[in-house]
Amino acid sequence: MQAKTVERTLIAIGVAFIALMLILPLVTILVYALRQGWEPFMDAITNDYAIKALNLTLLATAITLIVNTGFGLFAAWTITKFRFRGKQVLTTLIDIPFSISPIIAGLVFIMVFGRIGWAYPFLDAWDIKIVFAVPGIVLATIFVTFPFVSRELIPLMQAQGNEEEEAAALMGARWFHIFRKVTFPHIKWGLMYGVILCTARALGEFGAVSVVSGHLRGKTNTLPLHVEILFNEFRLTAAFSVASILVIIAIVILILRNIVEYKLKQEES
Amino acid sequence: MYVELKNLNKRFGNFQASDNVGFGIEKGKLIGLLGPSGSGKTTILRLIAGLETPDSGDIFIDGQRVNDLPAAQRGIGFVFQNYALFRYMTVFDNIAFGLTVQKKDKAFIQNRVSELIRLIGLEGLEKRRPHQLSGGQKQRVAFARALAPNPHLLLLDEPFAAIDAKVRKELRTWLRETINKVGITSIFVTHDQEEAVEVADEIVITNKGRVEQIGIPVDIYRNPQTPFAAGFIGESITLSGYGDLHGFEAVSGFDRAVLRPEFVRVTKPQKEIYPHASQRGVIDEIFFRGSTLELRVNLAGQRLTAYQPLDGDAFAVGEEVSVLIYRLYLCNERDVLKVENRSIQGETAFFI
Lengths: 269, 352
Ligand SMILES: Nc1ncnc2c1ncn2[C@@H]1O[C@H](COP(=O)(O)OP(=O)(O)O)[C@@H](O)[C@H]1O
Ligand SMILES: [Mg+2]
Fold this sequence. Notes:
The structure holds two protein chains of two kinds. By secondary structure, chain A is mainly alpha-helical. Helices cover 81% and strands 0% of the residues of chain A.
């Protein structure tokens, strides 16, 4: 009887908290976005700057995904399949982006590639722009999200051990064949999960990107930055309309994530 | 010698996993690597297979030095301790893997795999995944997978360790027969002496990364050459004051003796045959061991173990008995000396 009461109370608190902290704000965004009707909403999201910002966000996310999936696979493979000195250090280093503030990550890029950075003279000589340009945004996004994939893969690959790969190698299989036939089937859902987390974070990244972007409308504005600008200009309806794009993408990702999580669980049993 | 290892050394950090390992194997033989856990058995297999590189020493297979030959080109089949079956492939694809890698044509692969599936008696299970198989079935699939590309040498790491006791015996016999049928030179690793004695043509005893002795099972059993081999084989106990035992005297340089239960005969005092060779002891404990009784006898403070057939004389705990010891292995740090009870020398006693 008492246990039942405790259980119900806890569930109620949980539901209330989620409703208050997550669902209410999300619904608010959609309500505000559509407050003045369909047309202002469509205007806001088909606005030239909004579309450019969306494109930039998608571009940065796409490059980030390619780079970080590659890096994540490589790092996880190296850490779990070989023995070498400094492995522990490498594992710790990979986690750095999780433990430092994105603002600091952004500042690091300014300090390296910006006007006061040590790489600036070289970049200037070759006429390469990184800070306050698209490459800076991409770099910052990559930096902030690079642990996601390897973090998912390392425990999976560690649990699998090396023996299947060794067995395959003994029979003369080349590494790519081994990867495709032995390693990949084992990690594919974990990889997918890492990629999805990475996507979600890359799409929404604000802090680091904000520092290196320079906020040039139509040039270096990502979708989250665009929302901020609109908001600061008190164009609330437009700000919420654009924000709702991010919300919808987030919901799609959430659904994908749940599907993949389900698959991962199935795989385990 | 078909396989020959010469002075192999392998270190992991500060740990000497292989210490001057050397032995040879004749073609067609089934060799058992027997030693306690951590004695470097797996390391030896991995060195032969090319999964580890020795720090020094040579490996010859069929007269060819293979140290610099990549693992895949050594013509070796390897059965891993936990089978390492490809868990996302069917039984068929597992067995076919080596042939697929060699780009054999489809009909050939189909034939060869079917032949192997018949050999391991798993017809009808081709489409199963490893997790749908029992331990013994996995073991057989791992065996077939290793054999598929026709290796010249088969290495098996603790092939029965993960299988429950009942199936293990059956599988042991099966493996022995199948290897004979295929006629492939094989080395298998085990820490179970019963298994080694039963299955192997020859046994290599390993300890602390070293090879202690190599020989046919009976020989290793009768004539252990190192103190470790003397104590490891059989159900041995070690005695320090062996000089007090009737029929034996202390030999200088040998501070202890290894005694096996088979070398002890316990009788009623009135049935004593060799009075000078025997002495009195008291039964401490009696255990029923299925087909025999195990007696613990207190002999002037030393505790011995002896076996008594079920249909022999019945003893009771606390009873005084006559104890006859036929043989001891005297040991020091390096050597073993086999000594017989001198009071019955010349007479023929039965023992194994
Ligand atoms: N890759 C490795 N790295 C570090 N130590 C190892 C490695 N492989 C084996 N060892 C060590 O070498 C010793 C012998 O191992 P192994 O050959 O597996 O023994 P066995 O198979 O007889 O149990 C063990 O103590 C183990 O800790
Ligand atoms: Mg081992």
